[in-house]
Amino acid sequence: MQGIIKVGMADLKVVKEPDILTTLGLGSCVGIALYDRIRKVAGLAHIMLPDSCQIKNNTNKAKFADTAIEILVNEMVKQGASESRMTAKITGGSQMFSFGNSGSDLMKIGYRNTIATKETLNRLKIPIIAEDTGGNYGRTIEFYSYTGELLIKTIGYGVKTI
Amino acid sequence: MSFSLDDMNNTYLDVLKEIGNIGSGNAASALAKMLQKRIDMDVPNVRLLSFEDVAAVLGGEEMVVAGIYFQVEGDIDGNIMFLLDISSSKVLTSMLMGREDYSGDLDEMDRSALQEIGNILSGSYISSLSALTGLKMKLSIPSLCIDMAGAILSVPAIQFSQTFDNVLLIETILTEGDYQVKGNFFLIPDSESFEKLLESLGVYR
Q1: Which residues 6+ apart lie within 8 Å of B43 measured at CB?
Q2: Residue B155 backbone class (left: φ over 0; alpha: ψ -120 to 50; beta: rest)
Q3: d(CA A78, CA A73)
């Protein structure tokens, strides 16, 4: 039986073939989909903030790009994945609202989340093989452990697979 | 000591509920004046929710909603969001435009009307809060986004998440004749402002 596992905000999950990971309504958060194509182990993290070091309230490690990706990698290794084979697909990081030029740092949080995600993946030497980030709209994603494909659905901006 | 929402006892919640009540009441009369219609309001529901539960309250992460977002500046810094489900948005804009049919799609005029409605409601909400606390607050121009609830909520959720792991939601139901408008306010003070707010209301230790 194929299961669909939901990943909430500030959450991460790992599945093996043939299960599917999904996150609904990704906005300024970033979804990081890691995959080992040989063992067919798939992991999805849904991060909210770029950096755990800058925030006092940092007990939930799945909330931050820097710590969530490390945990996701470890969890996937526990399920039999090899870190050296892992590839990444990233999505989300939208700017849902804008206030003209007076945009504070907080308004650019989607962009900052994307940058921090890339830096962490770079540090862990996990190549980013596909990306669909930015814009001003939400995304619902489905990540298939048997193919490594990431399906992205939007309202008014079409459906695509990366 | 910094304030945590986990410390929030019933007194805090009662005070916030009262602010929600007065603010929503003023917002409802502002709306009634604008529409020249009788608007009834239920006692607002103030709840502390986890991120996951907020979207569920609004009908799921993929439900299309209209979010109108403001920056708040002054003695208190933060944001305020007014959130309407799509049918409530259509009811409100149709009333404002004097249309009989409440089911049409939202066009550009409706979008700007929605921003204005958000402006008036959030403005009266903020002024009650300001009058009650004696703190000065100023609203920015509105920014509107119509998209999936999960995506829109990610913005206040991210802001809350820097300090808290829960979200404070004030849910108000306005009724005009047979039509119901369900609106949700999110008040998102930054963490120091939150303490200041509670202190000015005399509930902070």
Answers
A1: B21
A2: alpha
A3: 9
Per-residue pLDDT reduced to its tens digit, B115-152: 888 888 888 888 888 887 888 888 888 889 999 988 99
Average model confidence (pLDDT) across chain A: 89
Q: In this structure, what token pair is assigned to residue B12? A: 């805090």
ipTM: 0.84
Does the pLDDT value for residue B166 go beyond 70?
Answer: no
Structure tokens at B5: 């929402």
Model pLDDT for residues A73-94, shown as the tens digit of each residue: 999 999 999 999 999 999 999 9
Span A125-153, pLDDT tens digits? 999 999 999 889 999 999 999 999 999 99
Task: Point out the residue among A8, A26, A27 whose CB comes nearest to the CB of B155.
Answer: A27
| pLDDT at residue B1 in the model | 38
Per the structure, how many domains does chain B have? Answer: 1
Rounded distance between C-alpha atoms, residue B205 and residue B202, angstroms: 8
Q: Evaluate the CA torsion angle B188, B193, B194, B196 in order and state its sign.
A: negative
B205 is a domain residue: no
Q: For residue A143, list its beta bridge partners.
A: A21, A150
pLDDT tens digits along B46-73: 777 776 677 777 778 888 899 999 888 8
User: Which residues on A lie below 8 Å from B151 (Cβ)?
Assistant: 25-28, 94, 96, 137-139
CATH code for the domain of B113: 3.40.1550.10
Burial-class residue A81 by CB neighbours within 10 Å (0-12, 13-18, 19+). Answer: buried
Structure tokens at B146: 């119509």
Q: Which fold has domain A4-161?
A: 60s Ribosomal Protein L30; Chain: A; (3.30.1330)
Contacts of B164 in chain A (CB under 8 A): 57
Interchain contact, A10 vs B161, CB within 8 Å? yes
Three-state SS at A63: helix
B79, pLDDT greater than 70: yes
- Return the bridge partners of B71, or none: B79
Distances (CA, A) of A105 to A55, A112, B104, B120: 14, 9, 37, 26
3-state secondary structure of B58: coil
Give me the domain span that covers residue B99: 5-200
Domain ranges of chain A: 4-161
